[in-house]
Design goal:
This protein has 274 residues and is α+β, with helices and mostly antiparallel strands. It folds into two domains: 76 residues, Multidrug-efflux Transporter Regulator, Chain: A, Domain 2 (Orthogonal Bundle); 118 residues, no CATH class. It has nine helices and eight strands.
C-alpha cells in the first residue's frame, strides 16, 4: 500500500478495460440511426433512399462506421417536400442530382413544368370523377323513380337496365369554334392549356394569336409538342409553331376563324411577362 496525504492506495494502477460495448473517439458524421432520428424517418427509409441514389453517398469514419454528412438532412427534407407534391422517386432523383449545386433557374423551370403537368392530370381526373359522379347519380335517380313492387329480379328486370351507366345519356354538341371534344374532355384540355400558360415566363396575346415563352426543358418541350398535336386533332383550324433555342421555347398559336378559342385557353387574367 502507498500513502499520499493520509490516503492509502493499492499499488496497482487504475485501468479501464475496453470491451465490445466501448469505443473511444468521436464519430465525425451521422450514422444511419442518428440521421433517421434527426430527420424523423425510419432507418429503413434512409437505407432505401441511399440505394435509390437519392442521398449523397456516405463515407467511412476513422472507426469504420458508414456516416453521412449534415447535408443529408437537407436532402431528406427536400425529398419529403417533393413527395408532398406528388413527385415519384424517379422524378425526385433527377432533381436531387442538380440540387443544391445546380442553377436555381433551371431547377425551378423543371419544377414548374412538373407542376403544370401534374395540375393538368389532377384536373383531368377531377373532370373524369365529376362525370362518373353524374352517371352514378343518374343510376340512383332511375332506381328511385319507381317502386318495382313484389316482382322477382331476373333477366329483363328494370334493375338490370337501370344499372347501365350509359343509359339516358345525350351527346354534347361541339364548342362554338368547332371543337370535337365533349364538355368533360374540353374542360380537361382547357385546364392543360391554362396550366401551361401558368408555367410560362410570359404570355402575349394578339388578334387571333398567342405567344408563350417557356423554359427550355426537355420535359416541357415534350409536353408542349404532345398538347399541340392533341389540339390539332380536335381543332383543325388552330396552328402551332414551336421554336426551340438553347435558352427558351417559344410557342406561337394562331386560331383564325375560331371565335372564343384563345379567350378560353388563355384568358385575360393569364399573367403577362414576369
Amino acid at each position: 500500500m502507498r500513502r499520499w496525504h493520509g490516503f492509502e492506495a493499492d499499488s496497482h494502477p487504475l485501468t479501464l478495460k475496453l470491451g465490445s460495448g466501448f469505443t473511444l473517439g468521436a464519430v465525425d458524421g451521422l450514422r444511419v440511426s442518428e440521421l433517421a432520428e434527426r430527420a424523423g424517418v425510419a432507418p429503413s427509409t434512409v437505407r432505401f433512399y441511399e440505394r435509390a441514389g437519392l442521398l449523397s453517398p456516405p463515407r467511412r469514419a476513422a472507426n469504420g462506421y458508414r456516416v453521412f454528412d449534415e447535408s443529408a438532412l437537407d436532402e431528406l427534407a427536400f425529398i419529403s417536400r417533393a413527395k408532398g407534391i406528388g413527385m415519384s422517386l424517379e422524378d425526385i432523383a433527377g432533381l436531387v442530382a442538380s440540387w443544391p449545386v445546380g442553377e436555381c433557374r433551371s431547377l425551378q423551370a423543371r419544377l414548374r413544368a412538373y407542376l403544370a403537368g401534374r395540375i393538368s392530370q389532377v384536373r383531368q381526373q377531377a373532370a373524369e370523377m365529376g362525370m362518373f359522379e353524374r352517371q352514378l347519380q343518374a343510376v340512383l335517380d332511375r332506381l328511385s323513380a319507381r317502386d318495382p313492387g313484389p316482382e322477382h329480379c331476373g333477366r329483363g328486370c328494370s334493375c338490370e337496365a337501370d344499372l347501365d351507366l350509359a343509359s339516358g345519356q345525350t351527346s354534347v354538341g361541339p364548342a362554338p369554334w368547332g371543337c370535337s371534344l365533349d364538355s368533360d374532355a374540353l374542360a380537361s384540355r382547357t385546364a392543360q392549356w391554362r396550366a401551361l400558360a401558368a408555367a410560362a415566363t410570359s404570355v402575349e396575346r394578339g388578334s387571333g394569336t398567342a405567344r408563350l415563352m417557356l423554359p427550355a426543358d426537355p420535359e416541357m418541350i415534350a409536353a408542349v409538342a404532345a398538347l399541340c398535336a392533341a389540339e390539332t386533332a380536335c381543332c383543325p383550324h388552330a396552328r402551332f409553331l414551336l421554336e426551340v433555342t438553347a435558352g427558351q421555347v417559344i410557342l406561337a398559336v394562331e386560331a383564325p376563324g375560331t371565335t372564343g378559342l384563345l379567350d378560353t385557353l388563355f384568358p385575360a387574367s393569364t399573367p403577362s411577362p414576369r
